[in-house]
Specification:
By secondary structure, the protein is an alpha/beta fold. The chain has 6 helices and 11 strands.
Length: 316
């Protein structure tokens, strides 16, 4: 009886083992990670509000091949690769038009790469330039000081309808074309000091500030009535030019006239005032400098009766 019971128990255990499901060994290699991205939330506790770097670290620790597939970009086509390699900063810069960095100079560089452009102001100071570079059409202020420019051509500022200030201090300018500045409709300030200019060209009537000090104008470098039509001219500086006269007539708007260190030897009584109109007063002209000239201001006292202040100069 005992033997029969053992045989029955053995058969029962054998049938149970045979009927149990087969468990295959799982190998967690990279080839087993073929998981759709939409199923990741079901397999792993992924928080979409985590920072990108932290999320990548957590996913990458569990599924390295999946993260590689997510963040690897498809290869560029031949056309896309060529477009990506094309520099965009100088696109459009050509001798015939203004690109992102302005028109090209004669050296083949865009002006705003050779110089410095801030808004509508162009700075070309101390760049060893021997000519005025072509300017963007929206330029309002141009500075090219301490260079080697020798001549201003009539086309240097052509079509610069927005230009308000030109500063060419400390160059080697000895010649200026007659039409170099005349056609600039908004030019207000012109600074040409410390050059070798012997003749001023015709200037636009819109000027409010002129500084041509330290040049070689002499007795014939300024045309007659050169400043007559400048109804808004406030400051006129012509120091150190070997002038032998005061350029007349001076506009009523003038506030400062600097003529020191020239060769002015005499002054007419109508230079500043009107002898026939004793009630005439010239209140704007408060700053007149004639020091450094061989002139005795005390010889013409009536020439200053209409002024708010006496000129600065020798009274002996």
């Amino acid at each position: 009886m005992k033997t029969f019971a053992n045989i029955f128990l053995g058969l029962f255990i054998f049938e149970a083992i045979v009927a149990a499901p087969t468990i295959d060994t799982l190998i967690y290699g990279s080839e087993t990670y073929d998981v759709a991205l939409e199923d990741l939330d079901n397999l792993y506790d992924y928080n979409e509000n985590l920072p990108v770097d932290q999320a990548e670290i957590e996913i990458g620790t569990v599924l390295p091949s999946v993260t590689r597939e997510i963040h690897s970009l498809p290869p560029l086509t031949e056309e896309a690769e060529e477009e990506a390699s094309t520099p965009k900063l100088i696109d459009g810069s050509s001798p015939h038009g203004s690109g992102l960095l302005g028109p090209q100079t004669h050296d083949g560089l865009p002006t705003c790469l050779l110089c410095t452009c801030l808004g509508t102001t162009v700075y070309c100071d101390d760049h060893e330039l021997d000519a005025v570079p072509p300017l963007p059409k929206k330029t309002t202020h141009f500075y090219s000081r301490y260079n080697r420019i020798k001549k201003i051509n009539k086309n240097d500022f052509a079509n610069q309808n927005n230009l308000k200030r030109i500063d060419l201090t400390s160059n080697f300018i000895s010649e200026i074309d007659e039409d170099a500045f005349r056609e600039l409709p908004q030019l207000q300030e012109l600074v040409l000091r410390d050059n070798k200019i012997q003749q001023l060209p015709e200037l636009p009537p819109t000027l409010t500030f002129i500084d041509v000090s330290d040049n070689r104008l002499g007795r014939k470098g300024i045309k007659e009535e050169a400043f007559k039509d400048m109804v808004d001219l406030h400051h006129l500086y012509i120091t150190d030019n070997n002038l032998d006269h005061i350029p007349l007539p001076l506009p009523e708007s003038l506030q400062a006239l600097h003529l020191q260190n020239n060769n002015i030897q005499e002054m007419h009584e109508d230079t500043f005032c009107k002898m026939k109109d004793v009630a005439y007063a010239r209140r704007a002209l408060e700053d007149i400098r004639l020091d450094g000239n061989p002139i005795n201001l005390s010889k013409t006292p009536s020439a200053y009766m209409c002024l708010p202040r006496l000129p600065i100069g020798s009274l002996i």
